[in-house]
Amino acid sequence: MTDAVSPASAPDLFADYRLMPGVADELFDRDGEMRPVWRRFVERFSLLSASEISARFERGNLYLRDAGVFFRQYSNDPTQEREWPLSHIPVILHEDEWAGICRGLSERADLLEAVVADLYGDQRLVRDGHLPAELVAGSRQWLRPMVGVEPKGGHYLHFLAFEIGRSPDGSWLVLGDRTQAPSGAGFALENRMATGRIFPERFPRAHIHRLAGFFGAFRAAMERLAQSPTGQRGATAILTPGPSNDTYYEHTYIARYLGMMLLEGEDLLVENGQAMVRTIEGPRPIGMLWRRIDAAFADPLELNPDSHIGTPGLMETVRRGNLALVNALGSGVLETRAMMAFLPRIAEVLTGRPLAIPNIATWWCGGAAERAYVRDNAARMMIGSAYAVDLPFDLGAQTALGGAFRSTGHASIEEWLEAEGAGLVGQEAVTLSTTPAWVESPDAGDAEGATRSGGVVPRPMTVRVFAARTPEGWTFMKGGYARIGKTGDATALAMQRGGSVADVWVVSDRPVKPETLVPAAHGDFRRVSPGTLPARAADNLYWLGRYVERTEDAIRLIRAYHLRLAQTDNPSDARLQLLGDYLDSYGIDVDEPFPSALIDRIEWARGCAGKVRDRFSTDGWAALNDMARTARRMTRTVRPGDDAARAMSVMVRKITGFSGLVHENMYRFSGWRFLSFGRALERADALAGLLATFADPAAPEGSLDLTVEVADSVITHQRRYRVETSRDTVVDLLALDADNPRSILFQIQRLRRLVAELPRATEHGRLSPLARAMVPLESAFLIAAPSEIDTGRLNELRRELARVSDLAGAAYLR
Amino acid sequence: MLYDIRLIIDYDYAAPSDHTRNLVRLLPHDLPGRQRVLSRHLSFDPLPDERSDSIDFFGNEMSAVAWHAPIDAVSVRLAARVERIAGSGALDLSVPLGDLGGEIAAERGLDPGAPHHFTGASPRIAPMAETTAFARAAIAPGTTAQQAVVAVGRALHGTMTFDQKATTVDTAPAEAFAKRRGVCQDFTQVMIAALRGIGIPAGYVSGFLRTFPPPGQPRLEGADAMHAWVRAWVGRDAGWIEFDPTNNQFAGEDYIAVAFGRDYSDVAPVRGVLRSSGGQNSHQAVDVIPLDPDTAQPLVRSVPARRAGTRAESDMETQAEPDAAVPPEI
């Protein structure tokens, strides 16, 4: 091998890698020498052919797509999910450099803890003039109800992220402290999984530090925090704002990865100062929440009254020291941009020395001298709100950059600074380092493109570093999450403006010890029982079951309609009329070959599934999405008659595929029971409705055959009765046959068995109201003769089933 | 002045709801040199499963109450006897308005009375160009901070019309000011926005106001309502003064304070969250009964009034016709 790979002698793939003057680079040092930590990776990468590279990148993309990793812009539109923008080449850092970063950030984390503790405690920093009172009082993140409240466990900060970048001189700089509810740790895991598919070789893998150990340590720390003051074990959970949040996917992923409950505010209630989870077994206490919601939204009673995602009384549980929050409510005040203007001085006051890793130079414009400085140096400043809590590069509209406004509204920067001084900060518009990123070649496809379809170019980057508090001090994720600029322009880093993300490898000279989340075996294997099921999750699973069954039922009815239409070509045929009316009573318009009401049903099912993604297999979710996509495609092309019937057959296969996945793979515990309960109830109801209409003596000729067909029991009927359909044979098979899964009795017995397995089905030897309601239902259908199951009895059954649903809802689902 | 205060707020919920939780700020408390609470009792029907009383950041009494089982109605009752100590009058100890900024900056601290909490935007009130311009037009050059407060309050009183139909409890100050109409809450919020706009720290006070029956007529029981007015910080020495823009006067002996905050969101008398769908209705009746300080007997004759119904969502407003019923006494 060559001694050193410099830009001049770099392999072909790096031909376009041109360093920018005055910008540090990750791959090459200041003298243009490739940094040793990259060398082996670059050598191996350069050996790959163009087709190999694209095949490997595609493997990574495929992993992310299959895992369902997506990025959502804040929106209610489910189609707003964007593909995960992975930049396939990792950022590589040597473990020694990483250790230095972590040492510096560890000091910074302690400083942040000291500041937040002071702001909610003695407030000496303000009284002594190290922080302006108006800055703290004006921050919406400084939560007055937290003043004087000692957080459970004694600390405010437990999980932090730092956005860092490398200065032109090679040193590191903090661009932002994330203290409110840092995101990205789950995405770092997913990026690692994806790069594992792209670069599966033993080298580099064996030399890359693993991420699992960090999560294991953090989980153990959270479990300790959840303990009661007397040391009793407490439940832990992740608190999410819900599926419309842009990082909801990450919340579900982390919940699954760490085996923690994923809750929304309405899953919790407060009783006597104790936070409780609404579960199917009644309220259960909880000791710690890793919150991913902004603190102001956590309690509509004492914090933001407009919050719909909070829990009334949560602040009270915090005040009484019964609930630990990661991080404590009010920690977000540290993210206030102007805070960075004061932290360097505070560090010297509190610790007697400057910060090892300084933050981006910041001037609060509330002071006359600072204001003048920012005015005079506006050309190399970003000027924006002092109270902003986003990162310096997430420039809002009200920001001036390099002496120019991004949007108009003020006559001049001078005037703006004078008018709103205390509300503004100036920050040095720093230059970041660049790191290799792959870009498709613009001339791909021509003669040269055949051999080289892309190349490596330098792109600006920042790295997000994660820290968790443990009893031994701060522990850091050995790896991270890098944001890569879309162009060479450092302001392009905001993810929502089209940047990409990359894995961060912390590499050792020697192979590292593998780590997993599985705790080291101490003694015998101990089986951990699955946690209790939150009532809202149960409710969503129940309705998922109902909507899926309801969708299948509608598909079969629509198929029957179009089959008849194809056979008779006569829309005024009596059976077609009856079918059309029946479907119409469910809001389905058969004049639409692919009724929009069917799309709605699929979307309802998807909506329920989306809220329980942490309890749901990735394959199941993919099957449901596939069905929704197929349905939307079909609406554009399907024609009435045979074509529509065939389309419905495709849909039947898709939906039974989903049902099969659930039935075959889902763990037989409470969640599965509620899903199955919903399906059984819906099917019993659908069968009753079907028989009441099409097995009614007044129904037109041929309706009985249609009934058997819709109930998917044609072959069974032929085998069992070997005669033409009669009302008695049809009712016998579809209402009273305990062995036919498409019979009412079968579903009632299924319901009864499921009910018996639910919590509190019997108490003190007495059946619960729900279990009690099942007994007369089952006996009635066990002993009835087909002639007794007339239309009136069937309609009565539907009312009884509605009551069963209400009883289940009252007992378990709220 | 000695008062008996009676308050009843009834809520009806359209659908019964479990785990109803309310946060109530209705208990008046001692304010040295200003008011003394001789007795007080806050009760709920049905009896709550939980109740815990505490002091909030701004020093207000806060009662958290909760019912575990579903309830479809709640009645909140307050009975208190409060002595209002005569104020020191309208002596102006405030600094020139031009110096107020320096006085604020010299204040280092985040205690509840610090002016810094009351300068910029709060959850419901932000200074805005219209009210700032209005306040600038109302004040004379070289005025003291206190004179500026009175001038803005007076100008607002002359500009806005008391109108119970024009606004709701959630109406933003910008809208009320654009309409030039509203109730005490609107007058107060607009004045706070106006004062903050010219650099005067201003906050919100909720409480009770003694109303006067028209001459020769008895006092109507239950015809009063809770009231709101403004407090403003006018300098280090003068501290806080209170002004009622609805009635164009300083908040003197007729005013009993309950809670202080940056705006309504800090002092809302009843904050509650329901899990049920469907709305809620509320009715409130308030009596502020002046007593003879020697006999503790009512000073004026009163007769029962028709039960006062107010708009939903625990809206608090004065129902006194301001100019006719309340003699100006600055």
Automatic annotation (TrEMBL), chain A:
Domain Circularly permuted ATP-grasp type: start-end pairs: 90-484
Signal sequence, renumbered to the chain: none
InterPro entries: ATP-dep_Glu-Cys_Ligase-2, CP_ATPgrasp_2, DUF403
Pfam families listed in its UniProt record: Alpha-E, CP_ATPgrasp_2
Transmembrane segments: none
Domain DUF403: 533-813
Stored PANTHER family: BLR2978 PROTEIN (PTHR34595:SF2), BLR5612 PROTEIN (PTHR34595)
UniProt-recorded name of the protein: Uncharacterized protein
Native source organism of the sequence: Paenirhodobacter enshiensis
